[in-house]
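Here is a tokenized protein:
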Amino acid sequence: MHSAPPSHSGGGIVSVLAVAGIVGSLMQTLVVPLVGELPRLLGAGAADTSWVITATLLVGAVATPVVGKLGDLYGKRRMMLACSVPLIAGSVVCALAGSLVPMIVGRGLQGLGVGMIPLGVSALRDLLPPQRVGPAIALMSSSMGIGGALGLPLSAAVAEYADWRWLFWGSAALSVLVAVLIGLLVPATPAHGRGRLDVTGAVGLGIALVCLLLGVSKGADWGWGSGTTLGLLGASVVVALLWGLWELRARDPLVDLRTTARPQVLLTNVASVLVGFAMYAQSLVVIQILQLPEATGYGLGQSMLAAGLWLAPSGLMMMAVSSLGARLSAARGPRTTLFAGALIIALGYGAAFGLMGWAWGLMVAGSIGSVGVGLAYGAMPALIMGAVPRSETASANSFNTLMRSIGTSVSAAVVGVILAQLTVTTGGRVLPSESGFRTALLVGCGVALAAALVTLTVPKTRPAPAPAPSPPPATPSPSPATPSPSPAETSAALATLVGLATSTVVTAPPDPPARPAVPPPTQVWPPPPVRIGHEELGPWRDAFRPPRHGRPETEQTPPSETVDPEDTMYFSENTPYQRPNPTPLSETTLPRAQPADQSAQLAALSRQVAELHAENTALRAQNHGLRTENAELNAATIELQAQNADLRKELDVLMQGVSAWVQNLAGRTA
């Protein structure tokens, strides 16, 4: 069940988790304004100080799927609180750092906090009623873009007008605030997963990701044809294949590859890689155009702070469209929302291609692209959670977040290669050329269109069919594909066992004349229709004798006896048993059963009855849970109606005040 306790506000839960997402994404852009100053501040070279950004990327990518799996096993709220600890510690270490190594260690600890974002998205499924999950997921997903867009101008302002250490002291204070809010306002979430953490799988995935991301992020510095780069990329492929084989054989895999291979999950993850590529490529191109000097003829000469302020509206647009994306997903499905988001991202690239000569034009283009990113980021978790069981929600969302991280890393490498190959020399400096920026924009637009095409191949999500009513006991007709027995079969089996135990033992009839040997037929389940009546069954040991020649042998009733139809039970799948013409019991030709067969068959039937009892108990418990959930939904609906009534009353009071003010103003004017 996914409803919060009555003592907690659903709006408060969403707000706290959204703030946690903003703080988590803020850590990724925190040091961007300091990139040029880090060599001087830390006394190291530019190539070495680039690890300050790379460390957060690597640790976050490796930790995200592991933290997601732990969230399924031990509860998402508990793991969000656990993620806040390294987030706080890493911020303090960075604030106190005076050299390169402590700064890299602190940034790595901050990367562990990135796993808080998919945990928060997954927790919404457990904490909110179904009708509120969609809008909450959209808002939570948009918070990642909000943190990145708003964090850049804020960190630039602090770096320009204050000591750079205040950036990390501020992030430590925000992390403490988030931990306190989660502990006070977010209820505990149930642990749906079973088993234990796949340590071997976690290590294998970590090695594969480190090799891949190192090769991609450092390829431009080391050389794409160098042995180090090629060796890392080749090792990532080999380790990934071995990791996949291990996960397929593991009892409790870190990532269930069979679930991930479902078309809806697989294609959504592919689209996530492409959307992550398109989103990051645009931000890389736009921020550089804004900051390049005007002497180039295409640069706009903006400072870091001004450039951040020009891009700030894009983050606000992501928040503004979150509710729109939720309504579109509810009306047309998240697949349509993801498709629309990818097309709008491509439209943003087109706008940037035509408006790159003006700062306001790039702001408009960035806002259009952010609208598409907001729609896409809100739809992807909904598609993932709609195709995986509740016990794998956090790990599946974390894996989807990892796919987006891989997309952004590949995007940085590809855009870097394009801009490094197409350059101009201005004032003794080698700078990316205008054609290089336009080429990067065209590549990003093509990737966004590819994401839209991949989205079209995602299977459409359909609402779950309503459960069919139980068939009447007299004519049970269970579906052959359903493994669990129907209630009618349960009652029939119980009655069979009772009838066998209480039937009157009669003298066995004399052996029939010798007949030609016939091979015994194969007994199947369910058995053919067998009439079981009070005092008509004959010797109880003959009840389990298989029929001759594949036909049910009829039990005969002495002509002197009559049987009440209510005392007769027919065990059949399709049609009631047709009552045969009465014949003397002595003419019954049922063969005798051996004592060993009797015990084995009675034991098998007893086991089956026990299983049917257990199944019946489980169905009763499930029914009780559904009724409880329905009652909670009704209570939430009543609460929303009451809030709506209160808002209407407040609006009436406001309008009455405005009317009185207008009348008073009109009287004074007159």
